[in-house]
Amino acid sequence: MQPDWEGPLGEAYARAMTYLQGLPVRRVGASVTADELRARLGGPLPHQPANPVDVVTDLAEGVEGGLVATGSGRFFGFVIGGATPASLAADWLATVWDQNAGLYAAAPAAAMVEEIAAGWLVELFGLPKQTSVGFVTGGQMANFTALAAARHAVLRNAGWDVEVDGLVGAPPIRVLVGAERHDTVDRALRFLGLGTRCIVPIAVDGQGRMRPDALASELGHGPTIICAQAGNVNTGAIDPLDEICALSGDAWVHVDGAFGLWSALTQPIPGLAEADSWATDAHKWLNVPYDSGLVFCAHPEAHQAAMAVRAAYLIHDTEKRDPLDYNPEFSRRARGFAVYAAIRALGRSGITELVDRCQAMARRFAEQLEPYVLNEVRLNQVLVSFGPETPQIVQSIQEEGTAWMSGTTWQGKPAMRISVSNWTTTAADVDRSVEIVRRCVENRRARSTQG
């Protein structure tokens, strides 16, 4: 029987175009409750087949109001970009082609596209030419993979083979990391069996940058990994990588650059290329659909030692690049297609302009909210506080629906984080969002006064 592809895919395409074309005017936040979604989409386990077109229609209608419009130019929560047309189209094709991108033998085109895109990325960031690249799910697994390579290297230098002998009896590893690090570093260390007790927090300055003088006093005590940061998740601040690398000695230097690494295209990051590994997310400033993390390693042998696998039932070719040698997954989708398409469509100049424009929009936010701004706005992060009532104001903004920002705590203060990461964000989006922020602040304070 010939499958009916046209019916369900045609319905999905029509629904997708309605959604995408409606983003400029769409409410950003969700408008229905979990109970409402459960009632629409749930029910007993289906026992009989259903018409695929009806399934797609019911799904699209059932989730309406429960989708957060992260692709909107007025979504400023967390650090989430949108999706450019070329990357989204390539991601659709990746789903249709349904390649298992672990081995070259199983997916030659996917492997070669990743290899080509990897070379472009290394050149874009100005990393050493021999740098190896892995395509992973996001910043979490990028940090995990890089730190696995770091674990291998520092223990190998201490005469221990962690891949063979494990961690029981191994020399202890110290991980020196800024006090304002991202939690994915701690979580990666847990996954790697190192635990969070190995962490030595290094003092930071008022913007969250690691202080080299505080780092220097902790160096020289056995196998050591230094986790630096390019883009503090709250302030956007970048650690002084040149000074950190100069101090590092035999320590492995990893850079968590989930979004800040992309700023290297608009402003040089001194010392960036001197590190040993780097992590970033393509679904942030490159605006590639989820999921799309990237890990880079200046020491391919350590990268492969930590990740590679060999088995008699697999087909390996020493002249070809097997993607599973550079990431912790075995079977996975071919996420390199979307990255390739994004870079090919934008080029260096287009990516640079995208990053530069987001930074300009962040400065526009900061100028209009100046009395409330807590940070030096150098990248795309604007950190604001309205005092003790900040969490309630953030909730009001989210519920109003015009824009969406996320809350945080910064050095003991409740704050709101504005992250400008979307390629479609305009000055009009910023101005409209600022108006809503001001209105929510005024309304909250009026209620407090009346109460």
Automatic annotation (TrEMBL):
Entry keywords, A to Z: Aminotransferase, Decarboxylase, Lyase, Pyridoxal phosphate, Transferase
Name of this chain's protein: Aspartate aminotransferase family protein
Cofactors that this protein relies on: pyridoxal 5'-phosphate
InterPro entries: Aromatic_deC, PyrdxlP-dep_de-COase, PyrdxlP-dep_Trfase, PyrdxlP-dep_Trfase_major, PyrdxlP-dep_Trfase_small
Pfam family, one: Pyridoxal_deC
GO biological process, one term: carboxylic acid metabolic process
UniProt xrefs under Gene3D superfamilies: Aspartate Aminotransferase, domain 1 (3.90.1150.10), Type I PLP-dependent aspartate aminotransferase-like (Major domain) (3.40.640.10)
Modified positions (N6-(pyridoxal phosphate)lysine) in chain numbering: 284
Family: Belongs to the group II decarboxylase family.
Keyword Transferase annotated: yes
Gene Ontology molecular function terms on file: aromatic-L-amino-acid decarboxylase activity; pyridoxal phosphate binding; transaminase activity
UniProt entry tagged with the keyword Ribosomal protein: no
